[in-house]
Amino acid sequence: MTMLRFLPGILAVQAATAVLIVFTTGSPLGQDWAPMAALGFVITLFAALWFGAMADHLKKDALAGAAAGFARERERLLVAAETDKRAALEESHRRILRETGRAHTRAHLKLGLGLVGLLALGALMLAVQFMTIGLLIFATAGGALGGYLVRARQDAVAIRHDTAKPAAAPSPGHWVSRNSE
């Protein structure tokens, strides 16, 4: 009902126009005022409808412009968020790789020190004539070193295998066992 907002203003303009016409023509208000008032009301009603239609179009244009602006802003924010998320993921991945590398380095150092300690203990046992205990300690240290090297090689092969081939998406029925079919 936008036309009702314009109607009082248009009626005031029409009344002022009528007063101006009456005073400029010098004719007194006689019997001719009723058709003139009806004509003025019809003109006012058409003007109100016209102004209402213009206001509706202006409102629709403003809403469309605002919606387009919001869509552009939303798209810009989504792109910025995606860029930020990607940068955060890459930084997190680098941090995890650094921390993993440090943990591996510490573990290698501790294992190396432990093996050196075992070998020193084995050498001490051999030196003080505890041959059996010294040989057992050497065998234990050698077995630990061998197991550690085998595990390190398996990890290296697994890492090479994972980086060479991208991870495939599981098939839709990958959780169904063969026995349930």
Describe this entry's structure for a reader.
It contains 3 helices and no strands. The protein has one domain. Helix 1 packs antiparallel against helix 2 and helix 2 packs antiparallel against helix 3. By secondary structure, the chain is an all-alpha fold. The longest helix is centred in the middle third of the chain and has 95 residues. The radius of gyration is 46 Å and the shape is rod-shaped.
Concise overview:
The chain has 181 residues and is mostly helical. The protein contains three helices and no strands.
How many separate domains? Answer: 1
| E-strand count | 0
Radius of gyration: 46 Å
How would you classify the helix and strand content by structural class? Answer: mainly alpha
Helix percent band: over 70%
Mean pLDDT: 77
Number of helices: 3
Bin the strand percentage.
under 5%
H/E element sequence: HHH
Cα end-to-end separation = 67 Å
Which features does this protein show?
single chain; 181 residues; 3 helices; 0% strand
